[in-house]
Design goal:
By secondary structure, this protein is α+β, with helices and mostly antiparallel strands. The protein has three domains: about 1-175, no CATH class; about 185-340, no CATH class; about 370-485, no CATH class. The protein is about 40% helix and about 15% strand. The chain has helices spanning about 10-35, 40-55, 60-85, 110-115, 135-145, 200-205, 210, 225-245, 265-270, 275-290, 305-310, 315-325, 325-340, 385-395, 400-405, 425-440, and strands at about 1-5, 100, 120-125, 125-135, 150-155, 155-160, 165-170, 170-175, 185-190, 195-200, 220-225, 295-300, 345-350, 370-375, 380. The strands form four sheets. A six-stranded antiparallel β-sheet has the order 2-6-7-1-4-3. Strand 14 (about 370-375) and strand 15 form a beta hairpin. Helix 2 packs across helix 3 and helix 10 packs across helix 13.
């Protein structure tokens, strides 16, 4: 949580002086660590602490220690990237730093005990200096959680400068909120959409489902993100900027300088606000998925999911769009929001999620439309809907043997065990989930592309991933808070 500081001229000069000393220490230690391959912070502290303690006598000892440790982190990160071949420079260029104040270099204990903290006491050159802060609404929201015991303030304070303004960055550690789980939400991240399958727990397990079967049908809807379109749009804009700047950077031999590394190019590109738009859409998805406390299910993406997705793709444009889709950012944002609202997040294997029918557990066949698949039992299935429902199946001990071999690849002939049951599964869970999925069964004779006793969930023929639809709304169907509609019912 960043809060702006009220800085007078004298205090501003002190902060600039501390930042200059801190930056010099980090630069020198980073250069030595990378050159001599020494990334252990304790070893670096033994080598440089006495030197900088005598050189910067007015600087607090713990600030020197923090600068050396920060340099060790930068050197270790640079060394790892150099081993992977991601850098070409001999050592990293440290242009700016964030000053870290530990518990002994600012008034942490007094700050935590205060009901409404508005000032800090920082150890700068010549002793402690009081600094007033400008708290905002977001800061008071988290501070109220600290007072209620729902969060804790970390003892490390970060002070950094942006556009000649000084900010204090507070780190709040949120405690998991314990709430009654009300729904099961499974989501699947695509290039331009996020497919969501939602099932209400209360209306499914109680007596309501006995007389109103609409509550047994999972609610499918799509959140439109357009990350792929955003990447295509900004790629065209950046190419146009490069073409416009090329005549100004022509070499005598007729070739061009790398325009993307020039100052003029960076000045224009930073105004595009591409990153801010992505962050806004990621937060929108996280807010939509965590409105009510529940069980949130998603795929296990790994550390770098884009690398495995672009394998076998030859088109540079498609590879670029996949690279620009923030899969991990959405997952991390949902995880953080789930912690705040009392939800539980589970990750399941991504194996065969969109290739198996969630009703019959049979392999789906391809059709003319990439997004619509055909089940051999006589109905059509939307690929996204199958994916989110198979994720929900994986967190339950269900009756089919597929619940055991989901993580297995090709070493097992799964057709041999088709239709077998699992004796360790609780019978009530089997009956409940089977009743839910049977209610969503499609009838091939009547409507091959429509779910029985419900509205069309599959897109029209020729539809693609860019097509998105809000949850259907019927007569006498209540509307939930925030504009989210209830699940589909009988017509």
């Amino acid at each position: 949580m960043a809060v702006e500081l009220e800085v007078a001229k004298e205090l501003n000069r002190l902060l600039y002086s501390v930042e200059a000393m801190y930056l010099n220490i980090v630069r020198e230690v980073v250069e030595y660590a990378v050159t001599n391959n020494v990334t252990n912070p304790t070893q670096l502290q033994r080598l440089f602490y006495s030197k900088y303690r005598s050189e910067y006598q007015g600087l607090h000892a713990h600030l020197i220690i923090q600068a050396i440790r920060q340099a060790a982190q930068i050197a270790k990160s640079f060394t790892m990237r150099r081993r992977r071949g991601l850098v070409s420079k001999p050592y990293p260029e440290v242009r700016s730093v964030s000053i870290r104040f530990v518990i002994t270099t600012w008034n942490y204990e007094e700050f935590v005990k205060s009901i409404a903290p508005v000032r800090l006491s920082l150890s700068l050159l010549g002793g402690r200096r009081e600094v007033w802060i400008k708290p905002h609404k977001r800061f008071w929201l988290y501070w109220w959680r600290v007072l209620r015991g729902e969060a804790e303030l970390a003892s490390t304070l970060i002070v950094k400068r942006r556009l000649n303004r000084w900010y204090a960055v507070f780190i709040f550690e949120l405690k998991p909120r314990e709430e009654e789980l009300k729904s099961i939400v499974a989501f699947d991240i695509n290039e331009n959409t996020v497919a969501v399958g939602k099932l209400d727990i209360k209306t499914t397990v109680n007596k309501v489902a006995k007389w109103n079967k609409q509550y047994l049908t999972p609610q499918f809807y799509t959140i439109k993100t357009d990350f792929g379109r955003l990447a295509k749009r900004y790629e065209r804009i950046r190419n146009a900027i490069i073409e416009r700047l090329k005549p100004h950077f022509t070499l005598p031999n007729g070739k061009y300088v790398n325009i993307a590394n020039t100052r003029e190019y960076r000045k224009v590109v930073k105004r595009l606000r591409e990153k801010n738009k992505k962050i806004g859409r990621v937060r929108h998805v996280a807010n939509e998925l965590t409105k009510t406390p529940g069980i949130i299910v998603t795929e296990e993406l790994g550390d770098n999911p884009q690398e495995s997705m672009i394998n076998g793709i030859g088109k540079d444009e498609v590879r670029h769009r996949i690279k620009q889709t923030p899969f991990k950012s959405i997952e991390e944002a949902v995880e953080d929001k789930a912690l705040e609202h009392g939800s539980k997040i589970f990750r399941v294997s991504s194996y065969r999620n969109s290739r198996v029918c969630p009703i019959h557990f049979t392999r789906l066949e391809k059709t003319d439309d990439w997004h619509t698949l055909y089940c051999p039992r006589g109905h059509y299935v939307n690929r996204d809907h199958a994916s989110v429902m198979n994720m929900a199946w994986k967190i339950t001990p269900e009756a089919w043997v597929k619940g055991v071999w989901w993580n297995m690849k090709l070493e097992m002939d799964w057709r041999e065990y088709e239709g077998d049951s699992n004796p360790i599964i609780p019978q009530n869970i089997v009956q409940l989930l089977w009743l839910i999925m049977m209610n969503a069964r499609a009838s091939f004779e009547q409507s091959p592309a429509v779910l029985a006793r419900g509205t069309p969930m599959n897109p029209a023929r020729g539809a693609n991933e860019d097509w998105a639809r809000k949850p259907p709304r019927f007569k006498a169907t209540p509307t939930l808070k925030g504009g989210e509609e209830a699940s589909s019912g009988n017509r």
